[in-house]
Amino acid sequence: MPISWLDRATDIEAGEWRSVHERSAARSPFLSPSFLLPWEIAFASGRRRRIARWESSGVASGFLFLCERGDEYPGWELMGGTDVADILDALIVPGMEASFWDAVIGEFGVLLEAGPLVLQNLVAGTPTLEHLALRCAVAGLSLQIEEIERSPCMSLPGSFDEYVEGLDKKARHELRRKMRRAGEALPGISFRVCRDPGEVASAFPAFLDLHRKSHPDKAAFMTEAMAAFFSEVAQRFAEDGTLRLALLSGEPGDVAAAFQIVAGDRLLLYNSGFDPAHRDANAGLVLIARAIERAIAEGFREYDFLRGTERYKYDLGGVDRAVYRATITRA
């Protein structure tokens, strides 16, 4: 089953990339053309890329997106980086993982001449971890797997009332109190979700402003270049129908915003922000609670808070899931 190597993500035929992505098990948005194409333009300039395209029965059925790590850190890593992509992996049609990794690992010899191969942000449960452990040993390669982060998520019940009742007593009481307090502190409070490209284009500057306001670290992160990348990705996701940009508003205007992405029957909380001037109203937490309520109403089966162990994720019912880094070297 042949492997071919491409030099850029733009070399992949768009239809076959989307076909493999739509059939993949996790359907990570960070492995879609809507994310990786803008990422390549924004962050991979001057760095070599090597993209493995694997066929089964003459049809593209798997991809592995790699990029040079840079002069300071030799070797290769998954495209998407660590700063802006929460879930990375190979992109494989379900049931073909064993054949894919047999073929791809057999090609690693040349890549490893440049240094280690680092597969970062692999989420617990991915078949990749199991197949790497089995096949690296057979191929005479050294494999190190280490936990690097936690990514809280939760299953969603059939109604918001069930969700609230499922929280522990203290969390349930606090959520109800904070939602009442928000209604009192923010006259004319309202919640909306933008998904149409035109709506998103109009509302996205508010997200960027609230993201920067919410914490000095977020302000430092959201440079003009990063804002341009986020805006491009948001528009592409909106055009795909996979963006859910949630906003909480009151008489002062928009006070909290959340960038959410659809991944099959899961809704991912990619990033968020709030106006600290309304901290007493718990605008950020109330926004996410309303977003969870809307997700349940839309029939999503899981809400994924993605990487990070912020307290609010656990207050809202998040349960830890480990995130790993796999490093492959010559034995």
Provide structural commentary.
- The mean pLDDT is 95.
- The chain has helices at residues 14-23, 33-43, 97-105, 108-111, 127-138, 160-166, 169-185, 197-214, 216-221, 224-240, 283-297, 311-315, and strands at residues 3-6, 49-56, 59-68, 76-78, 91-92, 117-123, 141-150, 153-155, 190-194, 243-250, 253-263, 266-274, 302-304, 322-330.
- It is elongated, with a radius of gyration of 21 Å.
- Helices cover 40% and strands 28% of the residues.
- The chain contains 12 helices and 14 strands.
- α3 (97-105) crosses α5 (127-138) and α7 (169-185) packs across α11.
- The strands form 2 sheets. Strands 1, 2, 3, 4, 5, 6, 7 and 14 form an 8-stranded mixed sheet that branches.
- The protein is of the alpha+beta class and 331 residues long.
Features:
six-stranded mixed beta sheet, elongated, 28% strand
Low-confidence stretches: none
Tell me the number of helical segments per DSSP (H or I, 4 or more residues long).
12
Query: What percentage of residues falls in helices of 4 or more residues?
Result: 25-40%
- Order of helical and strand elements: EHHEEEEHHEHEEHHEHHHEEEHEHE
Mean pLDDT: 95
Q: Report the biggest beta sheet as strand number plus sense, adding barrel if it closes.
A: 8 strands, mixed
- N-to-C CA distance: 26 Å
| Gyration radius from CA atoms, angstroms | 21 Å
Structural class by helix and strand composition: alpha+beta
Total DSSP E strands:
14
Tell me, what's the shape?
elongated
Content of β-strand: 25-35%
